[in-house]
Design a protein that fits this description.
Blueprint (H helix, E strand, L loop, with lengths): L17 E4 L1 E2 L18 E2 L2 H14 L5 E5 L8 H14 L5 E5 L2 H6 L2 H10 L1 E9 L3 H6 L6 H14 L2 E8 L7 H15 L3 E6 L7 H7 L8 H14 L5 E4 L10 E4 L3 H13 L15
Parallel strand pairs: 1-4, 4-5, 5-6, 6-7, 7-8, 8-9
Antiparallel strand pairs: 2-3, 9-10
């Protein structure tokens, strides 16, 4: 059977995927808002253990069509390890259609285009990249370890290699004063990345993180649903990329929206405008139903 260590996290779109814990934790693990892997020491799991788990999945589970490689930073493992793991998946799971993983800017920094192309040819189809913001001041405060230009540079390597990107932006990360600039700068970066998928989450202080400590000191502006709606509208309005799937369906969002850009952009903007015009009639997700 498959052994998991600690709490598992995966994107909403991986709900039906086989989760394979290729690595434990996150190799960077310094983002101020993230509590997901703070209790874990980063390490790569032995390939032999993963080989046994893949063999069990092939025997015991219904046909596996999607695999998500956890934890937070599987792409940082040695290319030879990842190629061997992808080979095991391809050989054991004949119905496999997609393999994906989280990718930090740091893991993309250490991968060459040739390595990423080899991983793509071996079966790695999609990487989830937390951009968080296109505003360098926000990125510095979040301790992402990179600026917007570096995110564009390293993510471009994945695109050049043929790996699709699913990008995430943190609504509210710019605070009240920086809200609109955060939205506009984020739209510029996402346009430059040309991802296949774009999603938004709401920045939420989580206990055990530096962001939580800041919030306890009153140093964090937590935007209300109307302010977040205004920020989201500014972000969507600034996007020019075409044929990208847009979602705000993460559990942290107050206002679930979905569509394909640019085709559905007028409808999405109209829905946001309707909320801003009549906020008392807005059907926001209640706080008790939201989470991370």
């Amino acid at each position: 059977m498959i052994r998991y260590e600690g709490t598992l996290y995966r994107p909403p779109s991986e709900a039906e995927s086989l989760i394979l814990q290729a690595t434990i934790g996150c190799s960077y693990n310094r983002c101020t808002f993230c509590a997901m892997y703070r209790e874990k020491r980063f390490r790569v799991r032995p390939l032999e253990d993963l080989r046994r788990e893949i063999a069990w999945a092939a025997r015991a589970l219904p046909p596996v069509r999607k695999v998500f490689l956890a934890d937070g930073d599987a792409l940082v493992a040695k290319c030879s390890f990842l190629l061997a793991l992808l080979g095991e998946l391809k050989g054991a799971l004949p119905d496999l259609r997609r393999v994906s993983c989280y990718a930090s800017p740091q893991s993309l920094q250490v991968r060459s285009v040739d390595e990423l192309r080899a991983l793509r040819e071996a079966g790695l189809d999609l990487c989830y990249l937390g951009v968080e913001s296109g505003d360098d001041r926000v990125l510095a405060r979040l301790e992402k370890g990179v600026d917007a230009a570096e995110i564009i540079r390293v993510a471009g390597k994945a695109t050049e290699a043929g790996i699709e990107l699913s990008t995430m932006i943190l609504l509210g990360a710019g605070g009240r004063a920086g809200s609109l600039e955060h939205a506009r700068a984020s739209a510029r970066v996402i346009d430059a990345l040309r991802p296949r998928f774009v999603s938004t989450l709401v920045m939420t202080p989580v206990e055990g993180t530096p962001l939580w400590d800041e919030a306890e000191r009153g140093a964090v502006d937590e935007l209300d649903p109307i302010e977040l709606t205004r920020e989201l509208r500014e972000f969507v309005a600034g996007l020019t990329l075409d044929r990208a799937i847009f979602r705000s369906n993460h559990a942290s969002n107050h206002l679930p929206l979905a569509g394909t850009l640019q085709k559905d952009k007028p409808r999405i903007l109209a829905e946001l405008d309707a909320v801003l015009a009549a906020p008392r009639r807005a059907r926001f997700v209640p706080d008790w139903m939201r989470g991370l």
